[in-house]
Amino acid sequence: MNKLLVALCLPLMVFANHMVPVADAPVKGTISIVTIDGSMITMTDGTMYQVAPTDMEISSGWIGYAADVTITESNDPNYPLTLTNTSTKTSVNAKMMESGSAEASDSYDKDDSGDGED
Fold it and tell me: Is residue 20 part of a domain?
């Protein structure tokens, strides 16, 4: 039984209580929030991803989708993960953010309403 559990866990690596892909083993998740500009994606489990600036236009189109995504490794060392929206069949490169990081907090603290009030 223990060998079976170890074999099932090998394709995944635990990072800050969240699973990230290792090698060719994709991880699945569900989008909870996408910022208006597409720069940050939060999953239903609380995992946050910063999207590569070149891909923000794609992820900004994911607003309104409570879509499932698959997460795999990318070839970009700065944004080492690829999030693929299974509904739209589009992908973005991203990096996982520490939930308490300044970058993560700054992205969600911005006033996106456009009315100029904080």
Answer: yes
pLDDT in tens, 65-106: 678 999 999 999 999 999 999 999 999 999 999 865 545 445
Distance (Å, rounded) from C-alpha 45 to C-alpha 1?
28
Tens digit of each residue's pLDDT (9 = 90 or more) over 77-87: 999 999 999 99
Domain assignment of residue 85, yes or no: yes
Question: Quick check: pTM over 0.70?
Answer: no
Instruction: Report how far residue 68's alpha carbon sits from residue 87's, in angstroms, rounded to the nearest whole number.
Output: 7
Residue 80 falls in which region: left (phi positive, over 0), alpha (psi -120 to 50) or beta: alpha
Please report whether residue 111 resides in a domain: no
| Cβ neighbours of residue 80 closer than 8 Å, sequence gap 6 or more | 73, 74, 93, 95
Domain that holds residue 32: 12-98
